[in-house]
Amino acid sequence: MCSRFLSVAALLTATAFAAGGCAAHGSARHGAIASAPGAPQPVKRVIHIAADPNNLPFSNDKLEGFENKIANVIAEDLGADVQYVWRAQRRGFFRHAFKEDGCEVVLGVPALFDMAATTSPYYRSSYVFVYRKDRGLDITSFDDPKLRDLKIGIHVLGDADEGSGSPPGFALARRGLQGNVVGFTMYGDYRQPNPPSRIIDAVAAGEVDVAIVWGPLAGYFARRTQVPLVVTPVSPEADPPGLPFAFDISVGVRKGDKPLKEELDAVLARRRPEIDKILDAYGVPRTPSKAPRPASSESASAR
Q1: What is the CATH number of domain 126-244?
Q2: What per-residue confidence (pLDDT) applies to 117?
């Protein structure tokens, strides 16, 4: 499950990438090498990142997303520049990003994701219930009996009538509530800004009574509606025997790139206060992480 599905699809109309842009990243990865006077100056390190150009609050090609801001923090710490490959997060995103595009980094990847090596998490969030404040629904659980009488919006992959492989979709089906579901395609009309945000618009407009949405998306767009909305984390964090609603989120690198993974772990530890401020500014709801965090800033900086 990638970030667009969690965020998006997390956890996927790419912009053209300059020919050979990622191909020369290997020798630059470890930084500049001192040169003799008069010798050609070393080329500044470049970190090549694959991201979606139309997916706020996570990323866009105007660099307005919180993952764009976090990428800048990482690059600054490493004395590097960022170069993006813009690609809509769809099926095959990681294969294209790491193999065909030759990129090094994808932000917003679920920890222990099987298509990448992942850093220690830099935040943990969950699915949330979103409803109008004036409804006074006070829903926190899939077992709340009020859900049986409500229209429930969830994100689905593909067309809105295809069903959903998302955790909320499974949880509702287990309780016989699939008839209450109104599906909103995660991909939407890509010509419009931030297609997944349509589900929040539907809550504000009263088209659905409640939506169950990945937390960062809900927290960001709920702040931007004219009608006050309530955003409440799903509780408990998992549906027995093993359906999770909360996820640790990491930076993903190519499998086998242990040096870069360790380098990023150290950066995430050193710059944690700045990263937390960015997440706060974007309204990202967080829950306590159950995975080991990077070492403290003091120990991480001792290299």
Answers
A1: 3.40.190.10
A2: 95
